[in-house]
């Protein structure tokens, strides 16, 4: 059974980009199941019916906590400058991009573009995506670094979201939601706590109860579940984003939204290069940094916008597009950038030099 899970995972993982393309194509042409996933609520708890999407997100974070190795956690105590630098880059660089984009698009005058800018601001304000831990886990990244980015960025997210949205107060007011910023930020904080922080901590506790040996036996099954979960999440998001674009295309608006979201993705993923070179990080840490900085919790962003604005369609467009772009970008990173091992010695997770083959 373990060998079968390992074979399926390796087969799909080597073709991950094409699997993502297939998910987008199926979502565009046959969106009904994806819409059902988004709309389904399950009576899991007494008096509570969380959405299937929330449970899928929680499963990703539970698996991330389950895969957290104590050696990595101990190593993270000595690598806090890297974590702080990554968290700062994840806030400041998108902020700089947002300010530059607002000037480029003529924020003060272009009322039709204000909703797009507000959508980019929401993306920039969101913490690291929970799905980044699954990408990192599947790429044998440093799970302590991945979870650290998710947990600390989530703890900071209410303050960051409040500040980012207030930078675009005019756009928020134009969309009719100026007075609800604080409430929406609180709603996002509750959502992130329930479906990001709590499942990750629960996974860590379960790992402690099971022990390292038993958890190691489950590793390939966990990776396969993560992969299937990721593909289903991408299919569901594509089902929401792509059919309306095909049925009622607004090419000017769509091109602007794609370029804006793509630019933010390039800035976010690109921030890893100077950080990894400055701190001489090895492959496991670089993998976690790429996915942690490049991927945003757009599910929380969608909840935030739906709560914040009465007519959120245009604001949602860049958020949905960024969600598609970030997973495609993660697939490119996983397939190409992480397979390119530099000629110089790398630093492994214990801080010791290692050769090229071991770095893989």
Question: Any overview of this molecule?
Answer:
This protein has helices at 2-14, 16-29, 32-39, 52-66, 70-77, 80-104, 114-125, 131-138, 143-167, 169-174, 181-210, 212-217, 219-247, 251-270, 272-278, 283-294, 298-308, 313-335, 356-359; strands at residues 346-347, 353-354. The chain has 360 residues and is mainly alpha-helical. The chain has a single domain, classed as Na+/H+ antiporter like fold. A two-stranded antiparallel sheet has the order 1-2. It is globular, with a radius of gyration of 20 Å.
Helix content: over 70%
Structural class: mainly alpha
Q: How would the global form be characterised?
A: globular
Number of strands: 2
How many strands, which pairing sense, and closed or not: the largest β-sheet?
Answer: 2 strands, antiparallel
Mean pLDDT: 80
Q: What is the helix tally? A: 19
Q: What is the architecture at the second tier of CATH? A: Up-down Bundle
- How many distinct folded domains? 1
**Could you name the CATH class?**
Mainly Alpha
- Portion of residues in beta strands equals under 5%
Order of helices and strands: HHHHHHHHHHHHHHHHHHEEH
Residue windows where pLDDT falls under 50 for at least 5 positions: 341-360
CATH topology: Na+/H+ antiporter like fold
End-to-end Cα distance = 26 Å
Give the strand order of the largest sheet, numbering strands 1, 2, ... along the chain: 1-2
């Amino acid at each position: 059974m373990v060998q079968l899970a390992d074979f399926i995972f390796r087969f799909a993982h080597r073709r991950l980009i094409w699997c993502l393309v297939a998910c987008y194509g199926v979502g565009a042409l046959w969106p009904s199941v994806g819409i059902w996933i988004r709309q389904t609520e399950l009576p899991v708890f007494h008096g509570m019916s969380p959405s299937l999407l929330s449970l899928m997100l929680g499963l990703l974070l539970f698996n991330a906590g389950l895969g957290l190795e104590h050696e990595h956690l101990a190593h993270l105590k000595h690598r806090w400058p890297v974590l702080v630098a990554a968290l700062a880059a994840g806030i400041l660089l998108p902020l700089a991009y947002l300010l530059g984009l607002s000037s480029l698009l003529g924020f003060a005058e272009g009322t039709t573009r204000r909703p797009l800018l507000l959508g980019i601001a929401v993306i920039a304000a969101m913490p690291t995506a929970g799905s980044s831990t699954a990408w990192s886990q599947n790429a044998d990244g440093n799970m302590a670094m991945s979870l650290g980015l998710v947990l600390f960025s989530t703890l900071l997210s209410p303050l960051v979201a409040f500040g980012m949205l207030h930078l675009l107060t005019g756009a928020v007011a134009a969309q009719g939601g100026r007075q609800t910023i604080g409430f929406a930020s609180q709603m996002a904080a509750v959502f992130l706590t329930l479906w990001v922080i709590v499942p990750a901590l629960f996974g860590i506790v379960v790992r402690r109860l099971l022990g390292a040996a038993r958890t190691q036996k489950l590793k390939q099954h966990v990776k396969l579940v993560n992969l299937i979960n990721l593909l289903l999440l991408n299919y569901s998001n594509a089902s929401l984003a792509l059919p309306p674009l095909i049925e009622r295309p607004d090419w000017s608006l769509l091109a602007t939204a794609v370029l804006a979201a793509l630019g933010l993705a390039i800035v976010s993923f690109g921030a890893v290069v100077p950080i990894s070179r400055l701190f001489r990080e090895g492959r496991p840490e670089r993998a976690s940094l790429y996915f942690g900085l490049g991927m945003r919790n757009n599910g929380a962003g969608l909840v935030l916008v739906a709560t914040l604005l009465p007519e959120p369609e245009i604001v949602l467009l860049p958020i949905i597009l960024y969600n598609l772009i970030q997973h495609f970008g993660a697939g490119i990173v996983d397939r190409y950038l992480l397979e390119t091992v530099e000629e110089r010695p790398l630093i492994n997770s214990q801080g010791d030099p290692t050769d090229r083959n071991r770095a893989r």
